[in-house]
Amino acid sequence: MDSLSPIKAPDTTLPSRNKRNLFSFFVLFAGIFIFVAAAGALYYALRPTILRIAVGPSNSDDQKLIKALAQAFAQQRMAVRLAPIPTTGPSESLMLLGAGQTDLAVARADLEMPSDAQSVAILRKNVVVLWSPSGLPAKNSKKAPAPKIKSLEDLAGHRLGVIGTTQANVTLLHIILSESGIDPDKVAVVQFAISQIGEMSHDKSIDAFMSVGPLDSKITSEAIAATARERGEPKFLPIDVSEAIAQKHPLYASEEIPGSTFSSSPARPDDKIETVSVNHLIVARRALSETAVGAFTRQLFAVRQALERELPGAANIATPDTDKDAALPAHRGAAAYIDGTERTFLEKYSDYIWGVLLLLSGLGSAGAWFRSYLKRDEKAKSIALRDRVLALSALARDGNSASQLRDMQHEVDAIIRETLEAYDDGAIEEGDLSAFGLALEQFHRAVADRHEVLDQSGSDQEGSIQPGPAPSSPDQIRLRSRQ
What are the distances in angstroms from CA 166 to CA 104, 193, 194, 208, 474? Predict the structure, then answer.
């Protein structure tokens, strides 16, 4: 056996592509995961926020206003949408709010609120209107009638009709009487529903009347007009202790009713009078998202002017008190909008953005490590193939025949094919292929030099080959493998 015959090559076949396929699957899975996560985040960020709002009673001004708001938000495709929940009245609305069955509720500020309720917007200011009938003059009498009740002090021992069946109106009346030095138990209170205004005006046993509503309330104006027709022109009763009531009971405020508010001919009242007001609010629980409440408040005041053409009462919408010591504090989302302290998108989500960037960086590092881990065997095998080419270069310098050199060339051709397959699959890098090209160039020079020696000695002319220039670049290596 020839001592210079090529030694048997070690098993340098690159491993099956399972690991490479596993890495490709990992990259594909990570890409799909990131895409799905990004798409989900985008959908979540762009989808409208639905806020449930409880409002009642049916067909009331409050319900009409909320329905108009909901339609305006939907038509303008705003970020926050409203889903009205009909109720029998403000008390039920607050009950649903306290039970977590609604996000917002419409109610008067002096009703029993959930412990975590906060104001979002003022829909209107309800003012107290107290009046007594002057009585109609006797037939053929020229003497003007004089009302039985000329001031609050005269209410003791008389009956007073209150419009509205809510207990809040009676509670407010008792506060007014108490602060005015009148024993509430000495004033008989009879409550009438809104549909019973005609019956109330005909009831001669009622000596005075009370209504609580906005200054432009049709209910109050109609009640005053009805009692004037049946009982004579009204005598309006001022609440001189309104400021004292506002100091002791922060939910109420001192207000003035301007002259001719309820009628200009004749003027009702004929001059301004002191009274007490209470806010009618949209309230939310403290836990409701600051972003959602801020966006809702912004949208509310954005569409308010447009709603005034359809619902004049929308002009009464106002901002709540944002002072920290307010009787009913403003929700932080509404306060941020009102005070101009809303945070920008980056200010709100900078921590999340940095967290995502760190996560992506970590995933990239983990992917690089995993790729390196999967390629450790391919790296070692590619080095073994390159070393085998170098070993064949040494053997080629001592080759005894062209057939031996041809066998070496066939083995190198197989190594080139395997190396290119590994390169195409990404198992080895461009730099590794360049290094392999240097080893291949050295092998071809050794073969060329040995052929020259054999040709000069004439020891073996059979099967002589003349190799071309050795490839030194990846493209040249691919071309050499095809040849």
Answer: 21, 9, 11, 18, 90
Strands 273-285 and 252-257: antiparallel
Query: What confidence score (pLDDT) does residue 259 get?
Result: 95
Among 127-141, 169-183, 194-208, 311-325, the least confident range: 127-141
DSSP codes joined into one string, 158-222:
SEEEEES--HHHHHHHHHHHHHTT--GGGSEEEEE-GGGHHHHHH-TT--EEEEEE-TT-HHHHH
CA distance 264 to 283: 35
Query: Domain 121-282 carries which CATH code?
Result: 3.40.190.10
Task: Region of 191 please: left (phi>0), alpha (psi -120 to 50) or beta.
Answer: beta
Nearest to 236 by CA among 210, 197, 199: 210
Nearest to 386 by CA among 349, 340, 357, 423: 423
Gap between the terminal Cα atoms of the chain: 32
Quote the CA–CA distance of 68 and 57 in Å, as a whole number: 16
Torsion angles phi and psi, residue 290, rounded to 5: -60, -40
- Of residues 76, 181, 48, 65, the one with CA closest to residue 121: 65
Q: How many helices and strands (H and E) does the chain possess?
A: 14, 12
Strands 104-108 and 80-86: unpaired
356 token code pair: 């995502």
Q: Which two tokens stand for residue 93?
A: 């609305």
Residue spans of alpha helices (H) in 375-429 = 376-396, 402-424
DSSP 330: B
In the chain, where does the domain assigned CATH 3.40.190.10 lie?
A: 121-282
Distance CA 334, CA 54 (A): 18
Question: pLDDT tens for residues 430-470?
Answer: 777 787 788 888 888 888 888 888 888 765 444 444 454 55
The predicted-structure confidence for 186-235, as pLDDT tens digits, reads as follows 999 999 999 999 999 999 999 999 999 999 999 999 999 999 999 999 99
Closest CA to 103 of 251, 278, 296, 317: 296
Largest CA distance in the chain: 159
pTM: 0.67
**Helix 376-396 / helix 402-424 crossing angle, nearest 10 deg:** 160
Distances (CA, A) of 120 to 56, 291, 293, 330: 18, 13, 7, 6
